[in-house]
Here is the input.
Amino acid sequence: MADDHIREKIITEFFVQTCQFRGWMNENDVFAMTCCSKLAAKHVSDDDIDLGYDYIPLLTGSVAEFYIEPMLSCVNDVDVMGHRSDMLAIPAGYTPPTQLPGEFGSRVYVLEIVNSEFPGYVYLVNSYFQTECVDDDKYKVTLCQRKIATHNRTSTGDDMMHGPALFHEQSIPSLTLTQTGKASIAESSQFLDIVLCVRCLIWPPQAADWPTRHRNYGWPDSATVDRVVHNG
Here is the structure.
C-alpha cells in the first residue's frame, strides 16, 4: 500500500512538472462541440409532431475530463452520451416525479430500473406515461402496460456498432509546416463514440457500491464522485 502511494506521488509530480494545462482549443475540441451540436439539433418526429423528441448530448471521456494535453493520440477520441427528451428512468418501486428539468418534453415515458439475472445489468421496463399540465408545469402520471424497453439502433452508412456505442471515423485534412517552412497537407483521423442512454435523476440502488469501490490512483477524486452521484 505504501509503495502504491509513493508511485502515485511520483506520477503526479511527473505530470505537474512536464505537462501544461490546456489553455486553448484544439481541433479535437472543435470536433467534439460539432458532434454535440449535431446531436442536439436532431429532432425525431412521429406522425404527430407533438410526439417528437430531441437528443440531449453530454460530452464525456478524455476530451471532457483531461486538463492536460494528452501525450498519446489514442486517448483523444470523442465520447458523447445522449438521452432522449421523452424518456426518464426511475428505480423500481419509486414514485415518478411530478416536476422535471426543462430539458424534458411535455410527454415523457417513465422506465423502471429492474434487476436482471446478470450482475451489473438491468432491465428498463416501460411503466408510466407523464403529460405536462400547462397550468402548474407539473406532470400528470398515468399507468401504462408494462413491457421491457428494447434498443433497436443498428449501424448505418460508414458507422458501425462498437459495444453499446455507435462508432464513427472521420478523416480530416491538416496543414503542417516543415523545418524549411514549406507547407504540406496530410490527413488525420478523428474517432467518435455515441452512446444512447436514459436519464435517471437519482442515483439507483443497483449502483450503490460504485461511490465506495476501490479506485486505482485515486481517480476520480471524491469531489467528482459526489458530483456524479448527486446528479443521478
Q: What stands out?
A: Helices lie at 2-18, 27-41, 61-65, 222-230. The first strand starts at residue 43 and ends at 44. The radius of gyration is 22 Å. The mean pLDDT is 79.
